[in-house]
Amino acid sequence: MTWSASLAPLHEHNFRWYFYARSVNLVGTTMGTVALAFAVLEVSHSPSALGVVLAAHSIPMLVFLLAGGVIADRFGRTLVIQTSNVLAGLSQLTIAYLVISGTAQLWHLIGLTAVNGVVAAISFPAMASILPQLVPRSQLQPANVLMSMVRNSLTVIGPSLAALLVVGAGAGWAMAVDGLTYLVSAALLSRVKLPAPVRTGQPTSMVTELREGWTYFTRTTWLWVVVAAFSLLCAIHQGGFFTLGPVLAKQSAIGETGWGLILSAEAVGLLVTTAVMLRLTLQRPLFWGMLGTALYGLPMIALGLDGHLVVVLVAAVLAGAGIEVFSLGWNLAMQENVPDEMLSRAFSYDALGSFAAVPIGQIVAGPLALMFGLERVIWVAGVALVIIPLVTLLSRSVRDLQRVESAPAATPV
After folding, report:
1. Alpha-carbon distance 93 to 115, whole Å?
2. Residue 405 confidence (pLDDT)
3. Nearest CA-CA partner of 337 in 284, 300, 275
């Protein structure tokens, strides 16, 4: 793939403005994850409290994800994303105000994080499925890589900046930056002009459209096999890494700044791999993607067994490289093999299945750590993250899935 072909999507008007909007949004989002974790720890020092707040985001996502897929297919993906950005920005700014003013209580954070979870559920299927409407099909890989490049570039510096803000000014200011970027992103999205969805035939109910999506999901073997694996992977990673990781960092020599560096190191691996994928064409996307996913357990193993910052940083770089290969492979598999009129719903079932067990992982992580010890729970979870993707490759439909150059035919219902 030449550099000219790699940058071709930026010549498309709609993709270019969507690229700008997401770039601005990601400036804040990469800071928001770190900021929220330490904002909760300012209110309560319990790892269980952090797990409850994170679950307050995950549970509404599970409840409303399927509705988000139908809404995106009905009302248009740009409108859904734009509206969601406004609502998310307002909820994040409210959290920021409460934390900065010193009036935040745990129930405030739980309630506002739940609102943000609902908004994320509605917007996720639209964001996941919009690229085929922004660029020609031949440009899907470079378009996905460019989106990954800006996301990963900002992720390199975002967590470290958030950690510095937390230490220097408090977690609330990083939350405020996140909220403002949502609003700016919504304004930029107004430049993206896509035709309104065209619906043929008799109007159908949301339940009927959900049933159509479920039928497609269950009949597509590679789709449900990978989603089933990620139901376990996401629960283990969210509980072991994002719930217990900050607690271990705060109690050890790693500290808040070290935790930010770990997240940034992972982003370095993402970014380097993104640059490589600008030049390579990824065939057998799920085979290489699941092999890459197996690397995601390395930082948890290093964190739990050793805890030395340098070792964890190296493991995080490798994990970032692996998950970037999976992310690109999964997006290409979905965007090229799933019909466009089914894509948002397919992504919503994907997200629902992948996130279904996340609240369980977040809630039980704290009690398990108290029972067996932080380090032991984290490294055992890391080993599980290595094994599960390798088992998934026993499915031929996963390891043999190929790229598709032309648009898939409409799915008969």
Report:
1. 12
2. 64
3. 284
Compute the distance between CA of residue 402 and CA of residue 20 in angstroms, rounded to an integer: 31
Six token digits for residue 267:
């982003």
CA separation for the pair 101, 111 (Å, rounded): 18
CA angle, 62 as apex, 52 and 236 as ends, to 5°?
A: 60
Q: How far, rounded to the nearest angstrom, does the alpha carbon of residue 73 sit from its chain's CA centroid?
A: 21
Contact criterion met (CB below 8 Å) for 278 and 1? yes
Question: Within 13 A of 356's CA, how many CA atoms are on the CB side?
Answer: 13
- The length of the chain in residues reads 413
Cα(49)–Cα(278) distance, integer angstroms: 41
Q: For the chain, what percent of residues have pLDDT higher than 90?
A: 22
Instruction: Give the largest CA-CA distance in the chain.
Output: 63
pLDDT digits (tens, 9 = 90+) for 263-317: 888 888 888 898 888 778 888 899 999 999 999 999 999 888 876 888 889 999 9
Q: What is the pLDDT of residue 413?
A: 41
Alpha carbon distance, N-terminus to C-terminus of the chain = 37
Average of per-residue pLDDT values in the chain: 84
| Angle at the Cα of 220 from the Cα atoms of 218 and 222, rounded to 5 degrees | 115
In angstroms, the CA 75 to CA 72 distance is 6
Dihedral sign for Cα 327, 368, 392, 306, please: positive
Determine the pLDDT at residue 201. Answer: 55
Question: What average pLDDT does this structure show over 215-227?
Answer: 94
DSSP-assigned states of every residue in 238-269? IIIIIIHHHHHHHHSSSHHHHHHHHHHHHHHH
**Which domains does the chain carry?**
3-192+205-399 (1.20.1250.20)
Whose tokens are 């930026």? That residue is: 10
DSSP 163: H
Contact 123, 68 (CB under 8 A): yes
The C-alpha atoms of residue 330 and residue 289 are separated, in whole angstroms, by 7
Backbone angles phi, psi at 292, to 5 degrees: -65, -35
324 token code pair = 């970037």
pLDDT at 381: 92
pLDDT tens readout for residues 331-350: 999 988 988 878 888 888 89
Task: Specify whether the CB–CB gap between 289 and 398 falls below 8 A.
Answer: no
Can you tell me whether residue 357 is helix, strand or coil? coil
Q: Residue 27 region, left (φ>0) first, then alpha (ψ -120 to 50), else beta?
A: alpha
Contact 98, 104 (CB under 8 A): yes
